[in-house]
Model the fold of this input.
Amino acid sequence: MDAPTGDRSSSDEPPFDDPIEPPTAFVETANVSDRSIYERFDRSWPACWGEAAALLEWEAPYETVLDDTDAPLYRWFSDGELNASYNCLDRHLEERKNQVAITWIGKRDERQSYTYLDLHREVNAAAAALRELGVEADDVVTLYLPMIPQLPIMMLACARIGAPHNVVFAGLSAEALAQRMGAAESEVLVTCDGYYRREDAFNQKSKADNARIRLDYDLSAMVVVDRLGPELAVHLGNNEYDYDELVTAHRGETVEPVARNATDLLFVMYTSGTTGEPKGVEHATGGYLAHVAWTTQAVLDVKPQDTYWCAADIGWITGHSYGVYGPLALGTTSIVYEGTPDYPDRNRIWELIERNAVNVFYTAPTAIRSFMKWGAEFPERHDRSSLRLLGTVGEAITPRAWRWYREHVGDGETPIVDTWWQTETGAILLATLPGLSKMKPGAAGPPLPGIDIAVVDETGEPIAPGETGYLTVTKPWPGMLRGLRGGTDRYIREYWRETDNGWAYQTGDGATIDEDGYVTILGRVDDVINVDAHRLTTTELEAAIVEVPGVTEAAVVGDGAGLIAFVTVRHDTGEDEKLREAIRARLREAIGAVAVPDRIVFTPELPKTRSGKIMRRLLEDIACGNEFGDISALRNPEVVGEISSTIGNT
Ligand code: WTA
Done:
């Protein structure tokens, strides 16, 4: 089996200490602290998921919790109706209209707070504006916006009128945007003139214009938020509208939330697929929102009176589920931060936690690694006593990083939830319940109540504790994807296997499970690389690199922190900085800055098996300085020494 060994570097301490009990002070106020929840969910599955659905207000109550007549095309709460925007806004007005819903923090001292009433007004005006543009229920609206308030506002405006949103991360390229819009057949685009990254202003409108040209149909409307003011004057062409003008005209209007069937599409989100063609993951309204609200409460322990900060960009699934829908469904105060963690300096995150008295902070191991590198003095300089719970997501966290996070951010006291899930799962599936379970640094945890998993070998047989296998989910769950845009066959083929015990969802992750049922994720078993908590596939990266003139072959691997590209070139091509720059430029253009490798290593040959397959695992071992696994299948062993010595010099 070639399940990877993950990024556990050999300098790390052993993976597990004694499990750590949740602190008493936390348990006393935890949203979930009654152990019977596991048994209760087990006993009454799938009806147990009614507990999650009960966190929402339904326009028409559901009778069927789970319709599995067409498995694996499961339908949750399929005869119920609700509206996501109503659930995130309207129903909170009576109790907390003047409570802050979103605190937006921009560059330097820019800051704007929206109470639930403010947000309700803005969303209504934006929904009316979308209607004016002719957007109707089921029309896909693409949002290509950075972390500015108009992004969650537009998401909720779409949800209000039943128009699924298709958020494309603002850092992706014009080509990537066009691909995602075209695949979603989306005719309305909301973008902005540009945005700040540190002191620099980036032009977003020109990327949107380029994408528009690439589409083989014309947009019916492009709405442009003026983020940069006079710093960047943009030209508005045909069917292009200034956001403020368009929305201002509708301020004060009320748009009735459209009742949606629970299985109606709430949004589509494109993620890297194994074929290199992005997959449009579709999430349904009812099951998704119920699962997200429930896990925000049970795992992230969020309470309405909390100030909660999910640091992930809303352009990815974590920002959708736990930056927007989860916290707003629960009526809490949430932070949306536009900046970077080290600007204007490395105190920024801790300063914001102190100033906003953040209670729950949710981030990714890649950020925690940076914090470690910068040093404990930055968090330690600030009052972090408001923090009650810390969370992590996106990739495996090493025990060392876990301990650092707890020690220097959580003062050795705060519990940590290591949450495992995927764009496709919509919400958290594996995590400890912080008021109940012992924590084991490095292990995500056991499946949540109501979630059934198995770690299996190639034949689908469960493996023994401690052995390496594939993580599968053996019962459906409410937040699960409804399908892939335009491809039921592809959906079933890529994710589902029929077993003697029914359908099993294939996560694509390698894992081990211990005697207590705690799962440690070892990384992807397919050609997906997690970089900076974003998913990229080797296929899409390599396809872009080989388009650069002179390049013959490329293999890209992750070294746990970033990307390394191994490239072979034609005999008449110089292996020089100019070529490296051309490769970087092509990746920036094809995918975006996230795809630019940290290192580009030229090599006369790539290591290949006798059947001609590139041995990426070996390249990964070379890049990480690991011992090599079995290389008996290698046809050209002489390249190993060559690559190792080159890499030492880069
Ligand atoms: C990885 C992000 C280890 C995993 C929510 C998964 C993790 C992929 C964890 C999904 C974790 C996510 N521990 N690995 N706590 N959380 N992953 O779709 O490989 O961007 O399959 O969703 O990230 O990435 P995606």
